[in-house]
């Protein structure tokens, strides 16, 4: 009986320590998908991992020659309003459609959500 009581007390103490640590330590950021709105578009501070390559493919330039500049609410190729990410390229700045806005430690846009696809830019 003494061994079971000792194990129960030990289990309880370990449980309390784990609960306290889970409250005290920061949890890893969980990625959230935000709606594509003018206000959320203004929050974008970066790009996703496939965007530079997707823009480079669209303009047939090396990805090393493409840089993210900013995000802005503007017009799409059809004239309708949309969130665009602006990239500098050897042929000048290009506005590319934002398909998703994601938030984890910071907010970033996705112009190319699927690896290997080409960005839709104008």
Tell me about this structure.
It contains 3 helices and 7 strands. It is of the alpha+beta class and 122 residues long. It has a domain at 32-110. A hairpin with a 2-residue loop joins strand 4 and strand 5 (92-97). The longest helix has 23 residues, at 2-24. The model is unreliable at 14-18 (pLDDT under 50).
List the helices and strands and how they pair.
Elements: H1 2-24, E1 32-34, H2 38-43, E2 46-47, H3 51-59, E3 67-75, E4 81-89, E5 92-97, E6 100-103, E7 107-110
Task: Please trace the helix and strand order, writing H or E for each element.
Answer: HEHEHEEEEE
Give me the Rg, rounded.
23 Å
Structural class: alpha+beta
Mean pLDDT level: 85
Give the total of beta strands.
7
Please report which band the strand proportion falls in: under 5%, 5-15%, 15-25%, 25-35%, 35-45% or over 45%.
25-35%
Helix content: 25-40%
State the end-to-end distance.
Answer: 76 Å
Strand ordering within the main sheet? 1-6-7-2
User: What is the overall silhouette?
Assistant: globular
> What characterizes the major β-sheet?
4 strands, mixed
Separate helix tally: 3
Oligomeric nature of the chains? single chain
Low-confidence stretches: 14-18
Brief summary:
The protein is an alpha+beta fold and 122 residues long. The chain has a domain at 32-110. 31% of the residues lie in helices and 30% in strands.
């Amino acid at each position: 009986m003494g061994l079971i009581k000792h194990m129960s007390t030990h289990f309880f103490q370990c449980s309390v320590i784990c609960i306290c640590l889970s409250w005290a330590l920061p949890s890893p950021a969980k990625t959230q998908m935000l709606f594509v709105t003018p206000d959320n578009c203004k929050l974008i501070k970066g790009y996703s991992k496939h965007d530079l390559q997707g823009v480079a493919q669209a303009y047939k330039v090396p990805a090393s020659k493409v840089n993210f500049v900013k995000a802005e609410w503007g017009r799409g190729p059809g004239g309708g309003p949309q969130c665009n990410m602006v990239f500098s390229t050897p042929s000048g700045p290009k506005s590319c459609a934002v398909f998703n806005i994601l938030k984890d430690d910071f907010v970033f846009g996705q112009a190319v959500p699927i690896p290997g696809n080409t960005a839709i830019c104008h």
